[in-house]
């Protein structure tokens, strides 16, 4: 079953809570918020993470602003990436330094 981005977000947030990870869900879209900020900002094992959540649908890709923000996080010693339920496509904007993970890869890399 394909998860919507909202359903996937709930799954990721539950996993972060279950693992006692500090995080904040960033709510963009108003005149008072910065564009391109990742959906979830977290501190995992002492490292800053900017996590842009996307569903597995082919039409749901990161924007140029999101890619630029993820690359900025990586350039400053954090981890900025796109997280999807099961798919791991190549970054949509390869001119920026960021990467994509699926949920299983993410758990293996940061939590196991």
From TrEMBL:
The keyword Hydrolase applies. InterPro entries: Restrct_endonuc-II-like (IPR011335), tRNA_endonuc-like_dom_sf (IPR011856). It comes from the Bacteria. GO terms for molecular function: hydrolase activity; nucleic acid binding. Gene3D superfamilies: 3.40.1350.10. The keyword NADP does not apply. Keywords: Hydrolase. This is VRR-NUC domain-containing protein.
